[in-house]
Amino acid sequence: MRPSLDNNEIRSVKQVFKSKFLTEGNVTKKFEIGISNYVKTKFAIATTSATTSLHAVFECLNIKGKRVLVSDFTFPATVNAIILAGGKPILVDVDIETMNITRDIVEQKNFDNIEIISPVSIFGNPLENEFYKLKKKMIVVEDAATSLGSKLGSKFVGSLANVSCFSFHPRKIITTGEGGMITTDDRRLANKIKSFKSFGKKDNEFTSVGTNYKMSDIQSAIGLEQLRKIERIIKNRQKMAKIYSELFKKIDGIQIQKQTKNSRHTFQTFVCVITKPNLRDRVIQKLAKNNIESQIGTYALHCLPVFQKCSKHSSLKNSEFLYKNTISLPLHEEITQDDQEIICNIISKTLKNI
Q1: pTM score
Q2: Which of 81, 99, 104, 292 is the most buried (most CB within 10 A)?
Q3: Residues 6 or more apart whose Cβ sits within 8 Å of residue 112
Q4: Backbone angles phi, psi at 295, to 5 degrees
């Protein structure tokens, strides 16, 4: 991934420098308003990362000692945020095709006394519509780190869950270098989060324990310029993803992530499954020998030493399979169709020769 940056970001950062106000201020407020208007929520709260966004939310929901259902197929940050807030993560399997938690998976077992669930809309692929119709009412804290701009029907990710958290890391759809954003329609929760991320301060009084998760105006200036071009970025990524998809139709032994029904997938990451077991790492190595960077999809958390003691809601076989067999391929505005064809040819030859 390479972020889409130009002279507009440089100009906006220079304007912040000239103002000599560098910490969180009016520029950050404009960025928050921009995001809330974009995803159509009442509130957007800027933070230092998606991880600190999740942590702030969990602290303000007071999850200490409470069990939280969470995707097993995700980056460790999702569960780290729960543990740091004193919660007890319960790892849940995902659908092998969409790579997301589904309503059916969650409802396979009894989840009495569980009030919170933290699903991940992975790689820019939204959760299914049915997920928001769970039989038991739960607070849904969506890890939408990769999904700014994704839609389910006409609704943006960020407006579907009770609260959502986005990332602006350079690998994401738009970037601020590092940074995150929380979106919600819950005024009370939004006010608690705003206080928590600013040392527990409210109306010039320190009324509770908090920390410093504020985003600087420098980052927000970059974010505002990035937000202006987000639809162009998404359109380009979808075009490149379509090229990959067409090329892979001709190759045996590889499948692409299934797009959620009635959705807009932004392809923050283009992920494939190497369907023949134990070949994914060889494909990554072969691409690397040709100076092409690729990575695994993401992790099955229960396979990592730090999370092996976490409770498991059900069998995590799909998550483990995806962890061992998914590959993320290059996708950014500097990639050409010729580049994509070269990548697919290398993968095809590698799979045929093994």
Answers
A1: 0.96
A2: 81
A3: 136
A4: -140, 170
